[in-house]
Amino acid sequence: MLTLLTNARLYAPAPRGLCQLLIADRRLAAIAAADAPALASGPTVTVLDLEGRRVIPGLVDPLVHVTGGGGEGGFGSRTAELGLEEALASGVTTLVGALGTDAVTRTPAGLLGKVRELAAGGLSAYCYTGSYQLPPVTLTGSVREDILFVPEVIGVGEVAISDHRGSQPTTAELTRLAAEARTAGMLAGKGGIVFIHTGDAPTHLEPLREVARTSAIPLAQFLPTHINRTRELFEDGVRFAREGGRIDFTTSTTPALIADGEVPAAEAVARALHARVAPSRITLSSDANASLPRFDAEGRFAGLEPGRLGSLFEVLGECVEAHGLPLERALGMASTHAADALGLARKGRLAEGFDADLLVLADGAWTIDEVWALGRRVHRRG
């Protein structure tokens, strides 16, 4: 199965001008200038002219609650599962599913089943073992064996720190968990990342620094998210990234959360870059289908809205159009840097040998015309 895309204005994410891209089954077999001899021809080749439209890597989302989330306000506040059609239209071609606050009525087995459903629909879908609480819930009885033996499991998360909904883990517990994930990842050829939910308690990211200070685990073994939750946490996240860690900003938000002090994700990216945080230390995630809850001063539930997978693409547009970031620089936050942090070797770039995950953008607008996942067109606008 050969597909030749011609006249693609390629951002890989670095700009490469007008190109032709040859897709062989699931991967990019070759890339050449548009005016070079055709990369393939003949009756077995499907040729599609993209007419100069921009082509960018498919987005990589490190946190999606594919089985739904919420529940902090009782069973009536549970959020819905992610639908396949919504996922295909969002521009996210690679996602990582996670459990959150509720790891009782939503289970690791249910999470894995949903991940496999999305993969059957054409996406690249992975998941974390564990949830907010420790000891972690697992499929096999251990984090190590889940990462080693379950192909879709690439790390552990979303483990909560500095949050009243977490299990208030000790330094020793976090260190042991990170060591187990790191070693299992090495043995399995995976990232073994420890994905961290960060709350708004004043301890912020200090629990992760304490692990690095008292053990051989590097800060980069962790990927803490929701760093734009409050302005105080954002400032601590900037320091954390300068110290060698990575930080992840949440793209789903609400006007109420922003009024409460959350930093909008595009603004957080611009401010972090202005503070001289290396771009490779910044990622974006949607927190899709999770609840975006509000709590009062005493920690009582005050309402929620669900996160949206499409917010990831929208925030990239805000980075470019509202904050003046070059497209190639913004793209890395939701493609290259995310894939590198997660240890997904063939994701996040459009290069020979990489998976053929790409978005075709509308001419002159921040809109997705087509989504290609693993060499197949899975969505077309209209």
From TrEMBL:
Its EC number is 3.4.19.-. Its main location: cytoplasm. Binds 2 Zn(2+) ions per subunit. Pfam families: Amidohydro_1. It is an enzyme of class 3 (hydrolase). One of its GO terms (molecular function) is beta-aspartyl-peptidase activity. The gene is iadA. This is Isoaspartyl dipeptidase. The keyword ATP-binding does not apply. Residues 55-362 form the Amidohydrolase-related domain. It is found in: Cytoplasm. Belongs to the peptidase M38 family. It comes from the Bacteria. The keyword Phosphoprotein does not apply. Carboxylation allows a single lysine to coordinate two zinc ions. Keywords: Hydrolase, Metal-binding, Metalloprotease, Protease, Zinc.
